[in-house]
Amino acid sequence: MMVSLQDIASNTRLAREMALTSQYETAVIYYQGVVQQIHRLLATIQEPSRKQQWQQAQQQIAAEYEQLKELMNTLSMFENPMNAPDSRTIGGGSGMRMTAFEEPTRDPDVWAPPPPRDPDVWPSPTNVDH
C-alpha cells in the first residue's frame, strides 16, 4: 500500500490540533499513525538525502509523541483525589506498602503542647495568710 504524503501531513496536523485542544487520547492515536506511515514511506525511498529528511521528520514527530505521553502521565498524577492516597510501594518494591500522604506515627512518650490559655479567664482564688 502506497503511503500518501497528503495523509501524513493531514494526520500530523490533526495530531497537533488534538493535542492543543486537550484531546490527548485521540492525539496519541494520530501520532502513532503518523510515525507508522513515515516508517512505511521510508522503506520505499531510495534517495539518501530525501530519506534522511524523512528520518528527521519521523524523529521530530516521535519526540512530540513522547512529550505528549509525558504530559498525559503528569496530568494523570493530578487526577488522584487528595482524599484517596496513592498506594504505590515506596522504597524499591520491598513489599512494605505505605501511602504517599500517610502521617507519621505519634510517639506516646512525647507530650502534646498545652492548650492555649484564655486571657479573659481569671485563676481560682487562693487563701493567703496575712
TrEMBL record:
Principal subcellular localisation of the protein: cytoplasm
Q: Which residues form the Katanin p60 ATPase-containing subunit A1 MIT domain?
A: 8-70
Q: Output the Gene Ontology terms for molecular function.
A: ATP binding; isomerase activity
Q: Which InterPro entries match?
A: KATNA1_MIT (IPR048611)
- Renumbered to this chain, region (Disordered) spans 79-130
Enumerate the Pfam families for this protein. KATNA1_MIT (PF21126)
Keyword ATP-binding belongs to the record: yes
Q: Which GO terms describe its cellular component?
A: microtubule
Please note every region of biased composition (Low complexity).
121-130
Query: What's the protein called, per UniProt?
Result: Katanin p60 ATPase-containing subunit A1-like
